[in-house]
Write a structure and sequence with these properties.
The complex is a heterotrimer of chains A (about 300), B (about 150) and C (about 400).
Chain A (H helix, E strand, L loop, with lengths): L1 H10 L4 H22 L9 H11 L10 H20 L15 H22 L3 H32 L4 H10 L2 H4 L1 H14 L11 H4 L9 H26 L6 H21 L5 H30 L1
Chain B lengths: L1 H13 L5 E3 L5 E6 L4 H10 L4 E8 L7 E10 L2 E10 L4 E3 L9 H11 L2 E3 L32
Parallel strand pairs in B: 2-5, 6-7
Antiparallel strand pairs in B: 1-2, 3-4, 4-5
Chain C lengths: L5 E5 L11 E7 L2 E8 L7 H6 L3 H9 L6 H16 L5 H29 L3 H22 L8 E2 L2 E2 L5 H27 L1 H7 L7 H7 L3 H5 L7 H4 L20 H24 L17 E9 L2 E9 L5 E7 L2 H12 L7 H7 L4 H4 L16 H11 L2
Antiparallel strand pairs in C: 1-2, 2-3, 4-5, 6-7, 7-8
Helix pairs in contact in C: 2-3, 4-5, 4-11, 4-13, 5-6, 6-11, 12-13
Classes of the chains: A mainly alpha (about 300), B alpha/beta (about 150), C alpha+beta (about 400).
């Protein structure tokens, strides 16, 4: 019985298939919103799904000079990392499928798996654009990862737990965005960096390095990476909404809050010009990390005083 | 009026090397110089900060003439001075202006590949416009160029 | 890898290039250490082709050198041939030529702002400028019937008139564009994120600009007062002059500002011409054969000085047509400027001169895949006819 439930959670709901579809739906919402902000019509509702179906049906070309095993497995690892992360967060306003003390750290690193795989996938090929893209992807990873984690640790510290469900319960009673505004901003911007959305899209800046690390990918591999990104978008939004925006106790609150956040992301994407990679790193280490750290220290001190 | 002053000044500057000076139309002076004097003449214009090199035109007056021409057009406001260099068709060569005008490289490369006028001393002699497999010694803008020369 | 050069090829097919050109950038990490260029991918043999056609045919041929600035190519050619023939186009024709030329400049500059913003990853500005550019494209279509190769010129004049209704439509269109342009000027000179990508990037000092012989807005952004419309007025630019738009900074921001500010001059001069449109004929008669002579015709294309050298030989076709487009002198500056910059800035610097490869390339030989056979012009024509049958 428990095996069956586990399989269900993993393959169908809330883990597998459904979250893939919701990821695509969110991707569509993002693309549509950006398009409307830019005075374009934008894609039709099934466009991301159609893209994925088309890519999955196509031949995957393995270029010369790569390690074929790595080339094929990296997208799978990336997607499974993102899907596994989905099991530990309260997606759709439901309690996480699995939960243990310290799952916050595991989730954050599962989310980084996608970026890491992208970087490795780029470094695996001989394509110059891929190599430059991979370098940038990993550089960017190292710049936003620390502040993003710090921004998620703020609520954890306030809740006194490393367990996502416990923090989400704590956050459900209060809007932590009011108590920790810096953390919220850093977490949201960190999410944009994680997803390589503009203005943090230097790793895949098409006018310089074509498609960055994924230039050589086509067909199935590319589809899996794209699906992984969609899942990561949902998981990331869920985390931020659950921690900072008064929790996602039911499906209505979940969709309302995550979509509102997505709207903000889309607005930022269309408002800002792309940052160079050195500017991205500078921004994160000079402002993001310092601010998150300062707020974190204040929290610790305040906690200590209160105790 | 200002144009005339400009042209007058250019004519004075170029006087030591001028073999023949004509005014083909208002605002223009056409000065024929020997290939060996080209660098000195251009340097005189540049040192006096007289305008800038706007283009190099290659000209093939036809096989019977036995010569090729390279026209160096300098512009200063509305005034244009053309240094006309005539070289023998059998061994066409002009000195490079690269020491006087650093940006001349593209113009000289175009002249070389289109007319086969050897520009002596230009740093880069790679093809700029023509395909890599274009046969050597075939210059498309010469009057005796025929498509059949490309083989096939 | 340290001893080996790491070369990033950009082109001939690359998302940053809207036309084929091939650049090779040697990079050390993200820093460019060397750059080289190979042109010729869209060389179509137009200079040679112009020698074998009569003047009327050649005019349509040179108009097809460039899809963006087709009108200035035709204008430069017409002005040159008219001078050789000793004919002057009637004033009304000259005014209409100037109006179309300025509308073309508006279209070209708006297009450039969009492309350059896209290179910086600022797609919103790209989308908005291109949306507004449709206005001026529609105006051009209203006057000439075409959106790109307008064919407004004929030797000796123009073939399309501007009636009161069209003048009104142009005024309305310009009002809209002027308001939008004010907004764009504000964006390019005050958007903090965008300025991070343009301010202080690709700086070309006035000295460098003069040394490298750059022309057009690229030169004017570096404080070099060089504009053919002012230096050597043609058409009605003497009676209805434009003011010199100049910036001193020499960086990408200055290049943006110069081009956007030039739009206001274009709006003003078009309005002026519309209200003072001279009455009269649209064309003057021009002889078919033209006595042997040489002439030089220079006009200010949107990208800078366009140079035509035309030699006639007494027949109805030209002995030699030499075209020097503004991209050629400006191209050398790109290579020099990109050294020492971040790879991420290269597309911006490249776009900063508004390169037009089709303008540069004017000669080609078509090869069929597989066998190395060269096609003659006639074969190629036949192939084209068969292909579309």
């Amino acid at each position: 019985m428990s095996t069956l439930t586990a399989l269900m959670a993993l393959l169908f709901f809330p883990g597998g298939l459904i979250i893939l579809l919701v990821g695509l739906a969110y991707e569509w919402a993002d693309r549509k919103l950006v398009a409307r902000f830019q005075n374009r019509i934008g894609p039709r509702w099934f466009q991301p799904l159609a893209d994925i179906v088309k890519l999955l049906a196509k031949e995957e070309v393995v270029p010369q000079g790569v390690h074929p095993g790595l080339f094929v497995t990296l997208p799978v690892i990336a997607l499974s990392g993102a899907l596994t992360a989905a099991l530990y967060v309260p997606v759709f306003g439901l309690a996480p499928s699995y939960s243990f003390s310290g799952d916050l750290i595991v989730t954050v690193y599962l989310l980084s798996l996608l970026t890491l795989c992208t970087g490795l996938a780029g470094a695996n090929t001989l394509n110059r654009f891929s190599l430059i893209g991979a370098t940038r992807t990993l550089t960017q990873l190292f710049s936003y990862e620390a502040p993003f984690l710090l921004a998620l640790l703020g609520p954890a510290l306030a809740a006194g737990s490393w367990r996502i469900s416990a923090i989400a319960d704590y956050g459900a009673d209060r809007w932590l965005i009011l108590a920790q505004p810096v953390g919220f901003v850093v977490a949201l911007i960190g999410l944009m960096g994680k997803l390589e959305l503009p203005p943090f899209d230097a790793p895949e800046a098409e006018t310089e390095i074509v498609a960055g690390a994924l230039t050589e990918y086509s067909g199935r591999g590319l589809a899996l990476f794209r699906l992984g990104k969609g899942v990561e978008l949902v998981v990331g939004l869920t985390l931020v909404a659950a921690f900072y925006l008064g929790g996602v106790a039911n499906p209505i609150a979940f969709f309302a809050k995550t979509l509102a956040l997505l709207g903000v992301l889309a607005g930022l994407q269309s408002l800002l010009a792309r940052l160079r990679i050195d500017q991205t790193v500078g921004l994160w280490w000079r402002y993001g990390t310092i601010l998150a750290l300062v707020q974190f220290l204040i929290l610790i001190v305040w906690k200590g005083l209160a105790a | 009026m200002e144009t005339d002053t400009c042209l007058q000044k250019a004519a004075e500057l170029l006087a030591p090397w001028a073999q023949e000076t004509i005014e083909p139309e208002p605002g223009r002076v056409d000065v024929a110089v020997a290939p060996g004097d080209l660098v000195a003449a251009a340097r005189a214009l540049m040192d006096a900060r007289w305008g800038y090199l706007t283009a190099i035109t290659g000209l093939d007056p036809g096989e019977e003439d036995g010569r090729l021409e390279a026209l160096y057009h300098f512009a200063c406001g509305a005034a244009i001075v053309t240094l006309r260099v005539r070289v023998p068709r059998t061994r066409p060569a002009v000195p490079s202006l690269i020491d006087v005008i650093p940006s001349v490289s593209f113009y000289e490369r175009e002249l070389m590949e289109m007319f086969g006028i050897v520009v002596e001393g230009t740093p880069n002699t790679d093809r700029l416009f023509l395909p890599e497999d274009w046969p050597d010694g075939i210059y498309p803008l010469r009057k005796d160029f025929r498509m059949e020369q490309l083989g096939g | 890898m340290a001893s080996e050069k790491f070369v990033i090829p950009i082109g001939p097919q690359h998302p940053a290039l809207k036309e084929p050109g091939h650049f090779e950038f040697n990079v050390d990490g993200e820093i460019v250490t060397d750059a080289s260029v190979r042109l010729g991918y869209v060389h179509r043999g137009i200079e040679k082709g112009a020698e074998t056609r009569n003047f009327v045919q050649a005019e349509y041929l040179v108009e097809r050198i460039c899809g963006i600035c087709s009108h200035v190519h035709a204008t430069a050619f017409c002005l040159g041939v008219e001078r050789l023939a000793g004919v002057e186009a009637p004033p009304r024709a000259q005014a209409i030529r100037q109006i179309v030329a300025e509308l073309e400049r508006i279209h070209s500059h708006l297009l450039w702002v969009g492309v350059a913003a896209h290179e910086a990853g600022f797609d919103t500005l790209f989308m908005y400028t291109w949306r507004d550019r449709e206005t001026v494209m529609n105006l051009l279509e209203g006057i000439t019937g075409n959106r790109v190769n307008y064919s407004a010129n004929v030797l000796g004049g123009v073939k399309c008139d501007i009636g009161p209704e069209q003048a009104e439509a142009i005024q309305i269109g310009l009002n809209f564009l002027e308001e939008r342009t004010r907004h764009y000027l504000e964006v390019v000179s005050s958007d903090a994120m965008f300025l991070r990508r343009t301010r202080g990037i690709g700086v070309m000092t006035r000295e460098d600009a003069e040394r490298m012989g750059v022309v057009g807005p690229t030169a004017r952004a570096s404080g070099v007062p060089r504009d053919v419309r002012i230096d050597a007025p043609y058409l009605l630019y003497a009676e209805h002059p434009v003011e010199l738009v100049i910036e001193e900074a020499g960086d990408l921001e200055a290049r943006f500002k110069v081009r956007v500010r030039e739009l206001f001059e274009s709006y003003r001069v078009i309005r002026e011409l519309l209200t003072a449109l001279p009455e009269g004929e649209l064309t003057a008669r021009i002889p078919r054969r033209i006595k042997p002579a040489e002439t030089i015709s220079r006009v200010e294309a949107p990208r800078g000085e366009l140079f035509y050298f035309i030699k006639s030989n007494g027949t109805d076709s030209a002995e030699r047509v030499k075209v020097r487009t503004p991209t050629l002198p400006n191209m050398a500056s790109v290579l020099a400027l990109s050294v020492g910059h971040q790879l991420a800035d290269v597309p911006m610097i490249l776009a900063g001169i508004d390169p037009c490869f089709s303008c540069n390339d004017r000669m080609a030989v078509v090869k069929r895949n597989g066998d190395e056979q060269v096609w003659t012009w006639e074969q190629l024509r036949q192939y084209g006819i068969e292909y579309y049958r």
